[in-house]
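Supplementary material to the annual report.
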Amino acid sequence: MYDVLILSVMTVGILAMAVFSYKIFHSRAYPVGMVREIPTSQHGTLELEDVSDQEGTTQRIFYSDVWAKRHNQETAYGLFEKGKKRKIHLRFYGGGEPSFPEKPQGSPLEEKVTEHEEALKVYSKQVENLEKRLRRLEAERVQKFQEATEEEKPEAPQVVH
Amino acid sequence: MALESWLRVSLPALPVAFTVFGVWLYWGENPLPLLAPPLAFWGVVVLFYLFSHLDLPQGRNYAPFLTILASVFWAFAAITSHNLGKFVASKQYVGFTSVFGSKDFWYAYICAAASFVAGLLHFIRYEPLIMEQIKKDRERLGAQGV
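Predicted assembly:
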């Protein structure tokens, strides 16, 4: 039974391979997708410019032609606070010089709440690091204590005849 | 053949090289039960590589079926090689020529040869096309300054 099965599968398989190979050899073949092109940035061509707003904060504008195309505008630019990755504003304009959009004014209370939240995050992280360090020190202390007690164990008495 | 093409045939041949140089020459073990599956595996990998980089408008369904068949042969070569291994470890094995009397030897090596030869023939046929296309694509990208 084993022999019959293997033999029949082999025969059918080899015949099928021969037929498929014949069909493939007699069909047109086009090599595709061989050489990888360097991908362009998802934002397209970026031009950067540092400007200062009315309050003297330096901000960075970058111009993106991909965004412009996406929104059918002649120009598109984004605004980042210099040195930070978080976007502040995104504006799409139909050409001309981009004007500085106004910074959204939050209430003083909201600003304070945001500040406190950020400070709390930093503080929590510091506490977490301290706890990890404490646990590590505790584990080292226990290990040293165990090593010390093993060394102090009295030696077994020797029997003298 | 270009260096890239040599790389493409050499990498899947590493298991065969390990069996020959490691198992047989270095450790002095009998390589017969271990050689058939890597041979079949070479064919599977080469077919997979070729048909991943070719578009066959008329033979579109044949390419995956051929690769699947090569994989089935790989599986059969592996299973029958296991039985061949038992034969080689038994008292019935008295030398190299005694394996010719074992059915598992023939099953393992015929399946391995089928997969290997399929890969080899298709590689010889299609690798020059692929290399030519690579050359054209690189020239085109070079001209664009990318």
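The two ends of chain B are 26 Å apart (CA to CA).
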